[in-house]
Amino acid sequence: MSVTVKVPTPLRRLTNNQRQVQVNAGTIQEVIDGLEQQFPGIRERLCDESGEIRQFINFFVDGEDIRFRDGLATKIGDGEAVSIVPAAAGG
Predict the structure, then answer these.
(1) Do residues 73 and 28 touch, judged by C-beta distance below 8 A?
(2) pLDDT one-digit tens code per residue, 16-69
(3) Cα(72)–Cα(51) distance, integer angstroms
(4) 48 CB contacts (<8 Å, ≥6 apart)?
(5) 44: CB partners within 8 A, 6+ apart
(6) Which residues does residue 59 pair with via DSSP β-bridges, in sequence order?
(7) For the whole model, what pTM was predicted?
(8) How far, in Å, CA of 2 to CA of 10, rounded?
(9) Which of 12, 18, 44, 59 is buried most deeply by CB count within 10 Å?
(10) Please, are residues 24 and 1 in contact by the beta-carbon 8 Å criterion?
(11) What are the phi and psi torsion angles at 35 (to 5°)?
């Protein structure tokens, strides 16, 4: 299934400055695998050494945070949008 992945500004240098990219995926894990295949090195920005999504990176499927679904196993339907959103911090 083809899904649209919305890429945040800090990661766009890894995607040739593309705001959105297409990957064939049925889960968030497959999205990450597809991104890594197209853009080598992006996985280390998204996942830690154990393969889990980094604490400061959030994934949303059609606006819903995957932490409240099935995490990396969250299923994605054909044509659904996946957003990668870095956590904001400040004070």
Answers:
(1) yes
(2) 999 999 999 999 999 999 999 999 999 999 999 999 999 999 999 999 999 999
(3) 10
(4) 54
(5) none
(6) 84
(7) 0.92
(8) 24
(9) 59
(10) yes
(11) -65, -45
Q: What is the pLDDT of residues 4-30, one digit of tens each?
A: 999 999 999 999 999 999 999 999 999
Task: Specify the amino acid at residue 9.
Answer: T
Q: How far is CA 36 from CA 14, 43, 63, 64, 89, in A?
A: 10, 6, 23, 23, 26
- SS3 of the chain: the string is CEEEEECCHHHHHHHCCCCEEEEECCEHHHHHHHHHHHCCCCHHHHECCCCCECCCEEEEECCEEHHHCCHHHCECCCCCEEEEEECCCCC
Amino acid sitting at position 58: N
The amino acid sitting at 84 is I
Nearest in space to 32 (alpha carbons), one of 20, 22, 21, 42 = 42
